[in-house]
Specification:
This protein is mostly beta strands. Helix content is about 0%, strand content about 65%.
């Protein structure tokens, strides 16, 4: 039986897919209607949720044991603990597009608060479901340390 210890360091990189993109999800909603038979409303909202992770240093501690069943064959048991900074952020991008319509007009619901739609800046009424674009709004910022334990067992062959 041969015991051993492992100590090391490395870099964790979350570069995403082969094109360098990290995971993201985009949701697009479009609504169109004609109010009072004359006022067209056409709006599109887009929300993208992005996962961004930076590089971080990783410390590695571990150990295990090798046991030879014969001069050429054996088994190996290994445990490793990886410790790194949590470098994960979740970011949101949102964009609303109001397509101008003719004739210009607006409509508001009878609720409180009211939901209003406007199809032209000339009405002075802005759609309450739209607003300025939002880019890179952080909804989650990783902090602290991440740790991972890896346990492995295997058959070995000496050649």
């Amino acid at each position: 039986m041969i015991p051993y210890l492992t100590v090391g360091a490395g870099v964790k990189s979350s570069g995403g897919d082969c094109q360098g993109d990290t995971p993201k999800t985009t949701i697009v909603g479009a609504y169109r209607f004609v109010f009072n038979g004359t006022t067209p409303v056409n709006e599109t909202d887009s929300v993208t949720i992005r996962h961004a992770a930076g590089n971080s240093l990783v410390g590695i501690l571990g150990g295990g044991v090798k046991y030879y069943l014969s001069p050429r064959w054996g088994v190996r048991f290994d445990a490793r603990w990886y410790l790194s900074r949590n470098a994960i952020d979740n970011l949101v991008d949102a964009n609303a597009i109001v397509t101008p319509g003719s004739p210009a007009g607006s409509v508001a619901s009878a609720t409180s608060p009211a939901i209003q739609f406007g199809n032209s800046p000339s009405t002075g009424i802005r759609s309450s479901l739209s607003g300025p674009a939002l880019t890179g709004f952080r909804t989650f910022e990783g902090g602290g340390l991440q740790n991972q334990l890896s346990l492995t067992a295997g058959l070995l062959w000496r050649f």
